[in-house]
Design a protein that fits this description.
six-stranded mixed sheet, 399 residues, 28% helix, alpha/beta
Length: 399
């Protein structure tokens, strides 16, 4: 079985109020081109299809048109699309029935009472166990293993078995993710368990046994996760969502001969017509140096620009206007100044712009306030805060 593994498209994402439709359309066109050339048996889209649970009509149309083109590139291919934590699981399944006419399976919510809904047989090729995002507390004990056991009963020909999930797995490299907190118990130095983007990490053992490849979404950096085998992988996002995602953005083309074989994986890079560029590329510059870098940036490169600046106190009031003026006539788009200043003890303290404050996770804002107010934001307070935020997010996804 040949599988195209992708996730975290974040359609509808804007970057500092710049519309990214052109980039997202270019990504979808490349997806269709790869499908036409590679002719995979299965196309896996493992969550965070949209950037928000309430995407606009235009963004939903972009996805529908993109999936139709991807289907037309290889009509025999099965497409499996699961919801992520940014998606509305209920909305994900609204057009589930008509989608099946194009061999598209949209899996938005956990079916505890009818787990076979998560098992998709690709005749003569293999089985897909498609699990969307859900809060860990809502997953019945042993649910993943239950699904894999059901597949084992059906898999009489020894065909490959692929399982999907949208979650944080312990031991992953979360480079590029700003909003990461370590889960510590009282007295622990380091647990190795993290919350990334609001999702607590899972032990791999909880994912069960019996799959040949675990196709993961949520972490934006493409990677294998150590499992003792070469069979657990994040494909990463095909387009960067933040400037800190300074790595290649790819899809994973996976081939598995038969059940029990080690998957063969090839990364295929997705080209972004509007790259995200940080100036200087390494370290910090003074404000005058940063302006010089920006002024010398080539006129014909349609990039997004972030400036890394070290300041003694505050940026000049006219800083953003100066930077914007320096890009006049250029194809690049100035986004923001990432200003950092040194405190008296020479440790760096970040100065948040309005845009950065708006993009901060609520938990980070709460921690900053607690530190400012001299409050000990302990483990219990963090757990209560995360529980409240999860309730709000679940309500938004189910509206």
């Amino acid at each position: 079985m040949k599988i195209l593994h992708t996730s975290d498209w974040h359609l509808g994402h804007t970057l500092y109020n710049y519309d990214r439709t052109e980039e997202q359309l270019a990504m979808l066109e490349q997806m269709a081109g790869i499908v036409k050339e590679q002719k995979p048996d299965v196309f896996l889209l493992c969550g965070d299809v949209y950037h928000t649970p309430q995407p606009s009509a235009a963004v939903q149309t972009m996805l529908a048109d993109g999936l139709v083109r991807i289907h037309e590139a290889h009509p025999e291919m099965t497409i499996v699309m699961t919801a992520g934590n940014h998606d509305s699981g209920a909305k994900h399944e609204i057009f589930q029935t008509p989608w099946k006419a194009l061999k598209v399976y949209a899996i938005g919510q956990l079916e505890k009472e009818n787990p076979d809904e998560h098992i998709i047989e690709v005749p003569g090729k293999g089985f897909i166990v498609a699990v969307p995002y859900t809060n860990e507390r809502n997953i019945p004990e042993g649910f993943f293993q239950q699904l894999l056991d059901r597949v084992a009963e059906k898999n009489l020909e020894g065909l490959p078995v692929v399982m999907t999930a949208h979650t944080t797995v312990k031991g992953c490299d979360f480079s590029g993710h700003d909003h990461v907190t370590e889960r510590l118990r009282v007295g622990e130095q380091s647990s190795g368990m993290y919350t990334v983007g609001g999702i607590d990490s899972l032990e791999l053992e909880k994912m069960g046994e019996g799959y040949d490849y675990l196709a993961l979404g949520h972490i934006h950096h493409g990677q294998f996760v150590h499992s003792g085998k070469h069979d657990v992988r994040y494909c990463g996002t095909p387009l960067p969502v933040s400037f800190d995602e300074n790595f290649n953005h790819t899809i994973s083309m996976v081939e598995i001969e038969k059940h029990g074989d080690t998957p063969k994986v090839e990364e295929i890079e997705i080209q972004n017509p509007h790259p995200l560029v940080t100036l200087p590329t390494d370290g910090l510059a003074s404000w005058e140096e940063a302006k010089e870098f920006l002024g010398k940036f080539p006129n014909d490169i349609p990039a997004y620009i972030r400036l890394n600046v070290e300041i003694d106190d505050f940026l000049p009031v006219e800083a953003n206007a100066e930077a914007a003026n320096l890009t006049e006539g250029k194809q690049c788009r100035f986004c923001y100044v990432n200003a950092k200043r040194k405190t008296a003890n020479q440790t760096e303290a970040k100065v948040l712009t309005v845009q950065e404050f708006q993009s901060e996770e609520p938990i980070e804002i709460a921690k900053r306030y607690a530190e400012y107010a001299g409050i000990n934001f302990n483990e219990e307070m963090e757990a209560m805060f995360n529980e409240a935020m999860n309730m709000v997010a679940n309500d938004a996804r189910n509206d």
